[in-house]
Design a protein that fits this description.
Length: about 450
Amino acid sequence: MEERFFTYNRGFYKTFFGMMLVLTLQNLVAYSVNMADNLMLGSYSQNALSGAATVNQIFFMVQQFALAFGNALVVLASQYWGENRKEPIRVLTGIALKAGLFCGIVIVVLCTVMPKQLLGLFTNAPEIINQGLGYLNLLKWTFAFYIITNILMAALRSVEIVNISFYISVVSLIINVAINYTLIFGRFGMPEMGIMGAAIGTLVARILELVIVVIYIIKDKKIELFKQKLLQSDDSLRKDYMKAAMPIILAQILWGVSVPMQTAILGHLSDDAIAANSVATTFYQYLKVIVIAMTSASAVMMGNGVGRGNMKRIRSDARTLATIDVAVGIVLGIILFALKNPLLSMYQLSGEALRLADHLIVIMSFVMVGMSYQMPVSAGIIQGGGDTKFNMVVSMISTWAIVMPLSFAAAFWWKLPVELVVIVIQSDQFFKGIPAFIRFRSYRWVKKLTN
């Protein structure tokens, strides 16, 4: 069969865009849960908001582990699904669950044994630490639930089941907001619990998320995940999983640690810089959920393609996805720029902060285009195609050998304007695209990981 540059199979586009739409909605709803928590705690007490924000720095790292375990599972399981083999998917899911549960238990133990020390990494204000201690004492039990739920949803995603993740996010949002509103402020005759009310809302939502996904999997006939072999041990598959997982975990952790450090750099420049960056990145993050959805959908599509083993189809599918990435990035950049003035009119900022926010949104509009190519190609197409080390190496070099040293130098040594500091901090979204393009065009990332 003659190889075509783009894929003309309608089923490919229907599956990809359907998956991308559902994952976008899921990510958008999940992001809205955090926004709702911040708004309600912010209107209740600044210390409560700060305490929760400090604990959420720990939860952010938990998210990185959950994503890594889930993404590693998708890389392998999607290839087996492409081969139409269910049993290895069940065994791999069990392996991922054991690894995730062990990680969750370790984090819970650390939060129990040394909570003050952990919170002290992010703040030295006693009143904020006191608020955070109570919040962490309850929230820590959600960490294991969150990791397990995300691994199970990754297993479903690898066999192209994504609708349930959106429904779970919607239920989580409704339950979390309802309980938070009731218990934070003491509505409907319930006690006013402040930050502890928010913790209870999150705990109930996380338990409910896990219950829903387990019930769905039990009733689902497509993969029959709990039918058998979920807890079966297989040395060969365990080695395969850990080989795929370790680079992904390391890449997620390296990136996860760099994010608060980059925020801290801007936080030491000026109050106006903090406010402007907060406003600009809020809009940026809302559009970024689309890029994250593209990345996840691309990983599944490429994994399935490699599992089927048609090299001509793999290349045409990959070129199609990469072109879609660029097109979507340009559209998102234009949208962000076009909405700049209407969005800024919603905020009461000082003249300098408003000017900075305006400039930063323009910068982030261009950053959006670069990120929309390099992230789905590196962490979606290449990683989903079986090469789990490339993204780790590129992230390690770009973030820690280039961006972080230059960012510190730009802010504290060269003392550049805020806009130039932000450009330096975000510059990796552009130059990571160069090795991604070179690696992509080589097709050496196509690696059969099944056995």
